[in-house]
Amino acid sequence: MDIRHEETALEMPVSTPHGPWPEDSLARVPYWVYQDEANYKREMQRLFEANTWNFVCLEADIPNKGDYRTNQLGELPVIVVRDADGSINCFENRCAHRGSLIAFDDGGNVQNNFKCIYHAWSYDLAGNLKGIAFERGINGLGGMSKDFKRETFSPRKLRTTTLCGLVFATLSPDTPPIKDYIGSAVLGRIKRVLNRPIRVMGRFVQPLPNNWKLYVENVKDTYHASLLHTFLATFRISRLTQGGGVLVSPDGGNHSSYTIAIPEGANATAYKDQQIRTDQDGRFALADPSVLESVEEFGDHIQLQILSVFPGFILQQIHNCLAVRHVVPRGVGKMDLVWTYFGFTDDSPEMNRRRLKQQNLVGPAGFISMEDGCVGGFVQRGTAAAADHVSVIQMGGSTAESQETRATEASVRGFWKAYRRCMGY
Amino acid sequence: MDIRHEETALEMPVSTPHGPWPEDSLARVPYWVYQDEANYKREMQRLFEANTWNFVCLEADIPNKGDYRTNQLGELPVIVVRDADGSINCFENRCAHRGSLIAFDDGGNVQNNFKCIYHAWSYDLAGNLKGIAFERGINGLGGMSKDFKRETFSPRKLRTTTLCGLVFATLSPDTPPIKDYIGSAVLGRIKRVLNRPIRVMGRFVQPLPNNWKLYVENVKDTYHASLLHTFLATFRISRLTQGGGVLVSPDGGNHSSYTIAIPEGANATAYKDQQIRTDQDGRFALADPSVLESVEEFGDHIQLQILSVFPGFILQQIHNCLAVRHVVPRGVGKMDLVWTYFGFTDDSPEMNRRRLKQQNLVGPAGFISMEDGCVGGFVQRGTAAAADHVSVIQMGGSTAESQETRATEASVRGFWKAYRRCMGY
Amino acid sequence: MDIRHEETALEMPVSTPHGPWPEDSLARVPYWVYQDEANYKREMQRLFEANTWNFVCLEADIPNKGDYRTNQLGELPVIVVRDADGSINCFENRCAHRGSLIAFDDGGNVQNNFKCIYHAWSYDLAGNLKGIAFERGINGLGGMSKDFKRETFSPRKLRTTTLCGLVFATLSPDTPPIKDYIGSAVLGRIKRVLNRPIRVMGRFVQPLPNNWKLYVENVKDTYHASLLHTFLATFRISRLTQGGGVLVSPDGGNHSSYTIAIPEGANATAYKDQQIRTDQDGRFALADPSVLESVEEFGDHIQLQILSVFPGFILQQIHNCLAVRHVVPRGVGKMDLVWTYFGFTDDSPEMNRRRLKQQNLVGPAGFISMEDGCVGGFVQRGTAAAADHVSVIQMGGSTAESQETRATEASVRGFWKAYRRCMGY
Amino acid sequence: MDITRLVELNAAYARVIDNEQFEEWPKLFHDPCLYKVTTAENVAAGLEGGLIYADTRGMLEDRISSLRKVNIYERQRYRHIVGLPVVLGQANGAADVETPFLIVRIMREGTMDVFATGCYRDKVKPDEAGALRFAERIVVCDGRRFDTLVAIPF
Amino acid sequence: MDITRLVELNAAYARVIDNEQFEEWPKLFHDPCLYKVTTAENVAAGLEGGLIYADTRGMLEDRISSLRKVNIYERQRYRHIVGLPVVLGQANGAADVETPFLIVRIMREGTMDVFATGCYRDKVKPDEAGALRFAERIVVCDGRRFDTLVAIPF
Amino acid sequence: MDITRLVELNAAYARVIDNEQFEEWPKLFHDPCLYKVTTAENVAAGLEGGLIYADTRGMLEDRISSLRKVNIYERQRYRHIVGLPVVLGQANGAADVETPFLIVRIMREGTMDVFATGCYRDKVKPDEAGALRFAERIVVCDGRRFDTLVAIPF
Ligand code: FES
Ligand code: FES
Ligand code: FES
Ligand SMILES: [Fe+3]
Ligand SMILES: [Fe+3]
Ligand SMILES: [Fe+3]
Question: Model ipTM?
């Protein structure tokens, strides 16, 4: 049952919880956005519980009727469940009676209904309240009054949509269809990878000591990869001097960066010339290079693709190492990064072994991605006393459109474009 | 020394820290009451430090002169001590000088006075400041000025009262006498159990991951017991279909529920009919049922009685297993539940052994009460994104009077009746 | 790049975040100063980031060009580094690009520049932004716009000053010269101890469960020492009845207390007469008194000197045990006390061994100072429900000038004099 | 009594619990037996009450069937780290033994807490087959706090 | 296989890591070998993927050269507390062993966290010189959470 | 030197502290001896200073009489979990030994923290009666932080 205060309902933001936005440029962001409690609460309501599509699970996670998974939209707990007709339902994981979690495991199978453990109220697979224990009381005593309208008491229901085996949910009736939401350019890059049935290979959770947006920025930051990650530069997995670029959706929120396996040509010495640490060419070699042995899998020479859907979904292809990542806020200064490694159901044993080896590149212990685990915390701590100062996101200009280079922060600016629109800043 | 700001002194609540109370019905409570920091601070001042009686210790804990115990009223630390004349004093555990805890153990014996360790100021057993180290300085230098009025500097003193060996304290001069406060009906149920000298059998503390009120509601919730706790239903320790009811004090704050050892008759199959999980009759049996072997102890066929005194005291009789529980808030989302198991000084060895075995039923590892340890956390998490939504407390109507059935939430509504009065909502 | 909101810029405090200051006397302080979040944030801006000198390291920590240490002014992370010309620079440890910590170890040596790990922007030893990776992009794509003024983008720079081998820093242009800041009387006591080159003997960190000001008060509190610390009284290391006194700087913020090795004479029995716990004379003796064997080192019979510089620096001489301590706030209810034990480069082996043994007296496990580790927490907890009550700091009057006795709280009042001026209370 | 066999008994004890082979746990006790979970404070104060109190193998089995079938709680597991047993005395084939322990509780979503520390006070003797079994295991916890609930035995 | 030698192998294993003698670590494995870090949940679900996956000693050496030379992270170290090995079976000189572990991570500024707990599932056999070495060490962590990053092997 | 006897020495050491039989603690040392509590960082930096520094049994006894009689602190206790000793070398009856440890501190109201982890660097040799005793025990803590205060020895 939903009662909203007037002020909440009416509240149209004219300024931020922290005063006016410092400067109307996508190239400047004040550091309080990573620190302010009121702003964090507002993100829950304006982003995660509003007009955004949020990743909730894979179709492969819930193949059969009654299969369910639990997840969160920001801090909103939800249940995603496969219905009898094969459709997928999603509703708030909160009992309509006194608010207990209805399900408190990662997932499982309930046959036809969920039963709250507290007082045994029960729900069908669409989240409709169906049963109330002792609704009529005993010997005419107790029970619910006759005029109690059970239908009007249900957990909040979410809309769901599926795309290439991914399941997204939104609490808002106004969120546009997923294809429009993502935009055709980025959409094509999702279809490129998720082109046949997948199989999950492993799951891990990586808690990070930073605000959730610092990680999302990091993922969208095509500029940092080869400058922070020695592996990418040294082994030419991804250098700014290699072919590639970044696609940014018109609304800014979604992106896909890519590196193409072509030689660097004239710029081959650029890293050495600038004495960039990550160029260990010649100084660092692998005793067993099999971790880098990959095969062309998608027929387009794209050896690395990182893709994000606003606000918190990430799809990764690094050589033959595939994963989806889900960003879950855990308060203003903490987040969880949920990793799901996958392959395809038709993988050969060799391809399976190749993926297992290449999984060394990513995740909490990834040769490549390890640094992304700590750098967000470095920013969180570096800006501790700088709430009213701003970050400078000006590489490649001040706009957020697709570019043929990765020496740009265009998709980071894109994130702030979408963020400010949702937050009303 | 006590200086209150004007605003604090004057502040008469016209609304809540979270906007207007959603609906003027005892059957609806907004979830922000379990989440809001400002509301929590207000509870400390309006409930625990105002017109309520708070359990501080057992008389048996401090039999002799100078025996003391420390405890808390909400977050107010206090010392309870037995005086020379056998009376019991209670005062704030805060030195009048610079605010150190005067006592920092659970209890013990000080002969005639407490001495603060920081600068050795000393207090008599009534909490009066009696000694100041080097009050006159040395060689005419230093020390306190002559006009310093030692009498006017003492920790805040609380009123105490005893009832059947229980000791309660209040900071307010206006709190009514304990018997009027509790009300005759519930009072009778205290006297029924605490009818002779007791002996403590064990102490444990159970931290819970939820707001303190969620546990108090759980204790008052006669509806949940046999639906959540398989043991109660399966072994017919307490079923809604057995005889019993709930007494609620006129002001709503205190309650006593009870189950009478009489057969279920016509309703014997009600649990099975509703396919209620907790009915494991026939499916679950004990290899050694001695844990359930009890004797009629109070001569009135009441085999289970749960009793609460507003805001945070609980007295329990389950067969021959007796305990008092004390609810101590630890911030908005945490609390401690302090268990004291007891028996009587005249227990036979058999009765002692019986109680030891039945203690398996309660406490953090209790066959029965285990679920109460986690269900509060389930509500805390289930309602994380539902601050402006409400719980539906409508079983057995919308009022808070005593009822002949336990298929009701009458005493939960009673809690909110008392809570809203104290909080000014 | 620094953008301050109007309101922040203009904000001139007419009252505190917690209402008016209770009483205009240095002898009264409300307990909310140890509890209030808004007040804590204000302390960061008005004290640590404003007109105060903050200890950042020892000159001995960074003898050579490129040697650096990291530290904090309140919560502001800084880098202190020795420049080519031997001067010492200090700047905010925050990259001008997107805010990462530039250095994330305690210290080390960078030869000529710091390089941020995130995108390889580089800084010279003065904190000037010197290099931007791929500033010109690649093949005419990406990079920074031509008109980007690199000079205007640097971390905030701090002024530094050195004194007897100590390095202090301030963010404000208005902080007076260190000698004026400290005042001649206290200054003399620093020079007395730090009269020749030192060598670091050990480093430890002691987290304390209390607001940072409770520890600073404790250090300035000449009244408590022999009443709390049995060792000081029993072994006559420092008794109020021995010679000594306290120096307070005119502005109140800095102090030096001292005990002179002269007999107590007439007052020899004062502790016994008042039955003060810490007088264990005759009841407690050491099996191996070598821990107390000291030699007159500074030629003035001062056997104990405790000295503080506002807000968080402490210099200690107890017999031959020397240390500096640095107070680092860690939120409203926590702090770190950073210990650096030292001796002199010309110490004989005997003197070295003497210092090693006497180090048993101080630090987290110090025979003397152990109690200071817990007493702050006792005040924090004792005052938990007393935000609007006040501490009584009246020993030795209500003013904050130097006194010939230590039976006074003059230097504690001095702290509040300086604190209220900085905070605008 | 051979220290190595005591160490192996404790390793087996920890393993069956941490690997969730709970049904094996009661088999490590004699019948009748005494298994109790309490605190150092209760022991020091001479208070007999326990969090768990079982004096037959049947009562131990009921603990397991209850946590398997009827009790409700969030998925969790333990990791025991058991120290070296100290034999305090021996008499007619039975030994009094003290063994320190540390239990980390791992919750479903992955949080790890130091859940309990303390000392096992045991009476150990061989069964008919000569295998060492507990005649008595008093679990004396150092602290008084038991977070949320205790479903799995210590 | 002699339990004492297994205990010594595990003590040496923990010591080279906790003392930061990382280069010694690969030498405790055979070549080829299998070293994998995963979770009890992945194992239970039959998911093969690992946080770390190495099937040659060279891959183990690459882990070390990488953490020494190229990876960026804040200074930290581990403290292993390793329990008693339980030998599950033996065949032609190789033993299947299970050993519980607890790892505390100590960060540069001194914070100590329970970083991981779990069970080593090992295949151990002697090398030519007769020294016990790991043919297989599957690190099965009890929890799913790996805070910030994993630079140092478990 | 027989590993089992070293293990028993360490078990006895942990037990007398954790059971609060503090007066037994100095008896496990020779006289003179060296007992020091410091950190890996100080050792690495060649800094001699210690949190606790005692070179006679008398100084150890003073630690105990002080914590018993004169120092003020909130009630607390430790639980040591001690790993397996590694013998680094032996010479004329004395052994150089390294032993990892973990100390959990349990406060009066029941909170349990990982209070310290590290490594004991010991010189052990038998006394006249042949009982193993510490000629030297350097407690090298992994971290630099010592929360609130250290009253009880490590
Ligand atoms: S809270 Fe779910 S049934 Fe009562
Ligand atoms: S604080 Fe109690 S005597 Fe000073
Ligand atoms: S944050 Fe430092 S270079 Fe980008
Ligand atoms: Fe990255
Ligand atoms: Fe219950
Ligand atoms: Fe002191």
Answer: 0.96
